[in-house]
Design a protein that fits this description.
Elements: E1 10-15, H1 22-41, E2 48-54, E3 58-61, E4 67-70, E5 72-73, E6 82-85, H2 91-97, H3 99-108, E7 114-117, H4 122-127, E8 135-136, H5 140-149, E9 154-155, E10 161-164, E11 167-170, H6 175-188, H7 190-200, H8 214-221, H9 225-236, H10 244-250, H11 255-266, H12 270-285, H13 293-299, H14 305-316, H15 320-330, E12 336-338
Parallel strand pairs: 1-2, 1-6, 2-5, 6-7, 7-11, 8-9, 10-12
Antiparallel strand pairs: 3-4, 10-11
Helix pairs in contact: 1-6, 1-7, 6-7, 8-9, 10-11
């Protein structure tokens, strides 16, 4: 689909069930609504007709105080142009209660233009067998379980979203917004998608993958205040060249005790943590195509461009230049497409 081929309104079903994640439904719905508003401002007809679909009509409670009203029953006879299955915090129970959704997926997958699953919603696609041999993603916390339960699925635990033919999968919660924006961009072009992203104050294509938040989240999860404070200090002073002895002294610990404690608390050595922080910063800077690789390396506090290259090869298997090229053309830093 593209802006020249799309001449009619796309029907899109948001598939929910008891216990669905509210934000995963509302986020993409907001993207499509904003897209319609911006199309209207251009004197164009709405691009999306979004409906709430479920196994039964009526009120469907979410994982919060909010409910959505299902106005359409899932049917193999009346298919939308696209459908999005929302995830659940308790996906195993949702699968057990939602066997009808799995059956529906198995029957309609070859006939529907787009079929997306957000977060743990990927389990519905996997259970239907449609992800066998295909790359897919889900929230990092259930990625190992998805791989264990469905070994034929090629699980990528770091991607924000992935596309394999007509099937789309995304990481957790807000990643559904990224996926919806990618659909808008494919349908109506980058300019409209960027307008929507700007109004919603989100990235059109966020840099990095799910692991991009690791350094900052790790600092929040660390139990010892002195280690947490040290991590925050490292993040603010990446231009420094640290030694374990210097860091231990700042943490008011012996070098040996510090090294052991940091590893236990963070799950990484100090060297691995610092490299990860610099890598994180570099992935964000590479989204700015106006910056040279040398400038990115300097601002990310690598010793030089060669140092940055070694870290990227170690973490991603590709150099920074290739990462940037893929990000610029397909958003692979934030997602990946497998056609």
């Amino acid at each position: 689909m593209n802006s020249t081929a799309l001449t009619t309104t796309t029907t899109l079903d948001m598939i929910v069930y008891p216990g669905f994640k509210a934000l995963e439904a509302i986020g993409p719905m907001s993207v499509f609504e904003y897209a319609n508003l911006h199309l209207q401002r251009r004197n164009r007809p709405p691009g999306y007709d979004v409906r709430i679909a479920s196994i039964h009509l009526g009120r469907v409670p979410s994982d919060t105080l909010m409910s959505l009203e299902a106005t359409k029953v899932l049917s193999t006879l009346s298919l939308p142009d696209g459908a999005i299955i929302v995830g659940s915090r308790h996906i195993q129970a949702a699968l057990a209660d939602g066997a009808a959704i799995v059956d529906w997926v198995a029957q309609v997958s070859p006939r529907i233009t787009r079929l997306a699953a957000l977060c743990s919603g990927a389990f519905f696609l996997a259970a239907a067998g449609v992800l066998d041999g295909k790359r897919a993603t889900t929230h990092w916390s259930v990625a190992d379980r998805l791989q264990a339960d469905f070994p034929s699925v090629l699980v990528d635990a770091d991607a924000i979203f992935l596309r394999a033919d007509n099937l789309w999968t995304s990481a957790g919660v807000t990643a559904g917004i990224d996926l919806a924006l990618a659909m808008v961009e494919e349908d109506f072009g980058r300019d409209l998608a960027l307008e929507v992203a700007t109004e919603m104050v989100v990235y059109l294509k966020r840099p990095g993958g799910q692991s991009q938040f690791s350094a900052h989240l790790l600092s929040e999860r660390t139990a010892r205040p002195n280690i947490r404070e040290l991590q925050n200090w490292i993040l603010e002073n990446l231009h420094e060249r640290f030694t374990v002895a210097q860091l231990a002294e700042k943490a008011l610990m012996s070098e040996r005790h510090f090294a052991r404690t940091f590893q236990q608390e963070v799950g990484l050595s100090t060297h691995e943590f610092i490299e990860g922080c610099r890598f994180e910063r570099a992935t964000q800077l590479l989204a700015d195509l106006a910056l040279s690789l040398k400038t990115v390396a300097a601002r990310a506090c690598f010793s030089d461009e060669a140092h940055m290259r070694r870290v990227f090869l170690k973490k991603l298997g590709i150099p920074p230049r290739m990462y940037r090229e893929r990000f610029a053309t397909t958003g692979v830093g934030a997602a990946a497409r497998d056609d």
